[in-house]
Amino acid sequence: MEDDQPDLEAPLPFDLELEDQRLTMQKDLKFFLTEQCTILCHLWEAVGKPVDKGRLKVYADALGDVPLGLLELAVTRTLREAGGYNVVPTIGAVWEALQKELGNPRDLARAMQEWADAKFRNLNMLTR
């Protein structure tokens, strides 16, 4: 009769699937944060300053909603337009460059989403 009883200790298939999804999300987040910090560190490196970890976290938090490819474009534009000053550009300067990259939209959040959607569509076309 005991053979008919389910093994309550064995993981259920959906438990394994959820765990796999959780691990994938953790890896994706770690990748995103690493790439984001790498891009933002260019702001310090370009002016020959050591990276200030506390300030880097503030920048990462303030720019956390920006897709990585767009953030890279904005940082590059910020550095190009920095005017040769030996200071780390402000978060506001990066936001201004971001707006310019998107054509100065009225709704920046929507424009960022449309940019990301377009990049994703292009990537899907390339992988077909």
Q: What labels would you give this structure?
A:
mainly alpha; 128 residues; 5 helices
Strand content: under 5%
Structural class: mainly alpha
Describe the largest sheet.
Answer: none
Order of helices and strands: HHHHH
Uncertain segments of ≥5 residues (pLDDT<50)? Answer: none
Radius of gyration: 21 Å
Describe the structure in your own words:
The chain has helices at 13-45, 53-62, 68-80, 91-101, 108-126. It is built from 5 helices and no strands. It has 128 residues and is mainly alpha-helical. Helix 1 packs parallel to helix 3 (68-80) and helix 3 crosses helix 4. The protein has one domain.
Question: Could you give a quick summary of the protein structure above?
Answer:
The chain is mainly alpha-helical. It has 5 helices and no strands. The chain starts with 12 loop residues before the first helix and ends with a helix.
What's the layout of helices and strands?
Blueprint: H1 13-45, H2 53-62, H3 68-80, H4 91-101, H5 108-126
Helix pairs in contact: 1-2, 1-3, 3-4
